[in-house]
Amino acid sequence: MRVMLEQANIATEYKALADAPYRLLAGDPGCGCVLICDHAANHVPSAYDGLGMDAGQMRRHVAYDPGAAGVTTGLSELLGAPAVLSNFSRLLIDPNRGEDDPTLVMHLSDGEVVPGNARITNEEIARRRSLYYDPYHAAIDTQIDTALATGRVPLVLSIHTFTEVWRERPRPWHAAILWDKDPRLARPLVEGLAAERELMIGDNEPYTGKLFGDCMYKHGTHRGLAHALVEIRQDLVREPEGQAEWAARLARIVEPLLGGASDNPLHRIEYHGSSTDAPADGGGQHG
Ligand SMILES: [Zn+2]
Questions:
Q1: Residue 165 in 3-state DSSP?
Q2: How do the domains of the chain map onto residue ranges?
Q3: How far is the CA of 61 from the centre of ligand 1 (A)?
Q4: Is 2-277 in CATH node 3.40.630.40?
Q5: Which of 24, 63, 171, 177 has its CA 20 to 30 A from that of 48?
Q6: Are 138 and 21 a contacting pair, CB within 8 Å?
Q7: How confident is the model over 97-146, as pLDDT tens digits?
Q8: 8 Å CB contact between 106 and 117
Q9: What does the mean pLDDT of the chain come to?
Q10: pTM for this structure?
Q11: Could you tell me the distance, in angstroms and rounded to a whole number, from the CA of residue 80 to the centre of ligand 1?
């Protein structure tokens, strides 16, 4: 019922289609996979006047994950998998944070004040949740429910990108897999990527996947679906050629995992829990 109300709001609350909270890429719901791209867009809805940021800032990682949408789109096409992509900047509200995470709406980003967030009220945070954050997650739930209705339990793969330099130090990993306690998808992804000899693959680094209430927690851990988050270094996917190359690489690794039905552990509902279900250990930050 809650979802129905929020969906009804979409028609009346968004001034333009360009301001809709998410984009859906059609796919076969029975293909065994649902793709997610939390930081696909650097779009700030027109009512927010760009949050007071300049255009140069909005092209950087503080606003979104450059290249992630292109990789997700390519992978969706290659696997025939449905995909949900956010259509709002993480600076508006970060869909990959729990509702109570202090970084849900960033007041500072890369040490710079985000003017449109600096004096934000709880009411405004609640409004952004109901207009952007909640509908985005409801859309993911709908895709997962639609997939489950085919009789095939989908795995859930989330696509992110990270900056090639952090605090003036280059990051050596080409890509990373972030995960919590469910190894079913994370293991084969780490192994599949690491098997490509020229690649250095992070396993829960440079970030950890053990983050309470994040997107994978909500849709993977909580629902017992095999899941993982892949992070790709941004210099490798800034251009369409790199995005296509990484989409093809991920498709090569993921496609063989989609075989079989309930005899395949990847397509069973299993509850592995979360490290963050124990007394909070603070988790970590995602890219
Ligand atoms: Zn990200």
A1: strand
A2: 2-277
A3: 8
A4: yes
A5: 24
A6: no
A7: 999 999 999 998 777 889 999 999 999 999 999 999 999 999 999 999 99
A8: yes
A9: 90
A10: 0.90
A11: 23
